[in-house]
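To: structure subgroup
Subject: Chain for Friday's discussion

All,

I'm putting the inputs and outputs inline so they're searchable in the archive.
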Amino acid sequence: MTFPKGFLWGGAIAANQAEGAYLEDGKGLTNVDLLPIGAKRRDIMKGNVPSLKPLEGEFYPSHEAIDFYHRYKEDIALFAEMGFKAFRLSIAWSRIFPTGEEETPNEKGLQFYDNLFDELIKHNIEPVVTLAHFDVPVALIEKYGSWRNRKLVTLFEKYAKTVFNRYKNKVKYWITFNEINMLLHLPFLGAGLVFREGDNIEQIKYQAAHHQLLASALAVKAGHEINPEFKIGCMLAAGTFYPYTCNPEDVFQAMKKDRESFFFIDVQSRGAYPGYAKRFFEDNGLKIQMEPGDEEILKEGTVDYIGFSYYSSRTTSTDPEVVKNMTSGNVFGSVSNPYVAKSEWGWTIDPKGLRITANQLYDRYQKPLFVVENGLGANDVPDENGEINDDYRIDYLRRHIAELKEAIKDGVEIIGYTSWGPIDIVSASTGEMKKRYGFIYVDRHNDGSGTLERRRKKSFFWYKNVIATNGEDLGLPSSSTSTVYRS
């Protein structure tokens, strides 16, 4: 048993990390346009937002990003050269409805994605489209407090129906919310939530979660009515929690940490709030405001597949001494695991964890899985000849894809694999360009300097060979020359 015929090999990006042109052609300001590079970034992502306008003296890399908005044709040509079968991207909500409340959508925004999808289809690349990849129009944050307000459910449903109708003959695979569980960890990034002194933060987060879950269910229902052939999924920032020891307290703690994330997918996949979530709300004095009919909406709007990102596993402990030794980098807190390596940014490197996570998700939901993000952020430095020999990335991806193959042998149904990100883009976690993931190097740096020239890395040729052999050959390619791409 190997990767099935028609397996969707490709790569994934987000609008706010790649497109740039952040106010061009009528686009409105979004929460992710307010995340600067530097010391303030993480605090703002958590909801401590000093301003709903860009601050003077701060640099916002995403405002230009890698200018995918103007360069998508040459980038898609490179993806086609690698043999991509699929390309995951997101639609920027505020390109379609700049404030979120317009009566009619922004035609220039709709046309941009029409052109983008046409270019993908021309190269026989299947679009995989995320409706909300950390994008909330700032006007909705100012007026309603973002997803804490139920009004956003209706506005999101309108947005979803608009793009479903527009692209019903061009896009088959959809995802409602990117890494929906990120709301609990970085609430401004994940849901545009801003907190003020005296706020009941847990109450606000879970009320916002309820609204996103409703919006997801309504979008799924509408999408299936517009085109019954649509495949609409949810998406989890995944990575199994390991207990640090076999102490039953550690094992139970790991189960609880996993459930923090499973909660969202349990609702989106099964159509109802799980018992453990109801107990959590009761134990913590949280009262989720629901209206008559909400339970029916959730039940009727379950997803077709489970999309997930996997970068690393996590480890937890109830021992205060062990907890002192936490890893840095990844937003999900984890005690240091002595059995696995770490990236330059402190992220655990655990290929076996991908197989474990895939089996865990499939056992739990019995729905097809789609690995929509997996990759290594590293500081790629061209050598004296301008070549980027990223053997470390090849090693990381090779080992993870090998474990994915083992998961398929275990009986896990997997639709595809889109690496993050196939071309260097702005890092979501740090705002850096220095933290690179791509098979394609972009001459752009943390301070905004650079020509934006594209250059193939060694991994470009390796991944091309992986796709050509449908994952059978994970070895090094015969040609590994790094060359400049010119349109």
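Points worth raising on Friday:
Residues 201-226 form the longest helix (26 residues).
The chain has one domain: 8-485.

D.
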